[in-house]
Amino acid sequence: MPSAGNSTEVSFPSRRAVPALVVALFVVGSLGAVASSLIAKPADVLERPIRARVTVIPVNFDRDAPEHIQFGKLTYRGGLNLFARSRHFGGFSGIALDASGTTLLAVTDAGSWMRATLDYDGRWLKGMADVTLGPILGHDGKPLAIDAERDAEGFALAAGDTLSGAALVSFEREHRILRYPFDIKRFGPPTGVVPLPKEASAMVANQGLEAVALIRAGRLKGSVVAFSERLKDRNGNLKGWLIGGPAAGTITVRRLGGFDITDAAGLPDGD
Q: pTM of the entire structure?
């Protein structure tokens, strides 16, 4: 295990279908698949993409019973504790996979992106290679440097795949959703802004737009789904919005066990 650098844990369930928790949305609670970095965010930013060497340690979901892998309709496919000798490695807040489940693209809450290849032993996740880290660019084409501007949280592919395309990225503190074109060497500058409803101004600075998803099928096709981390209605439900599409407006999800929202994903059938 390296003596310096950041660590994070990544785990993936089976691709079996899971019930949608609300119409057009699958919501992940705050004990989701990706844990934040264990140390403080770097004060500086990456100026250009760099390669990172990552060490992995397998993680069992149930330490006391490693053979326990079935959890209702979900099957645990493996997890990794990741270590790298870079202060810019960690804090991963949004992740996308390609259709094969082998190429990963992620953003961090310190204004960086990561692309990597996942290795499997049969159906079991075993490692990560070809890791590249780079800066998320602002409208001026320069890396986002101000801490309040670079806190990327939600992430959803809007076009293409994890190698080249466009993505929606939500930021908290300075609350906004931007459309970012990207390729294997560059992430941005942004080319569009998703307009937020007026009531989004009620979000607390560091509890802002934690999750964003794009609905690609069904009656809500074309809608952007956005959820804050902890904005609640008068009944204690967590508030979010359908933006654009045929039924724009406020939506809610019942808060379970005191958990906050950390991610959301549109499913192929529109859930």
A: 0.81
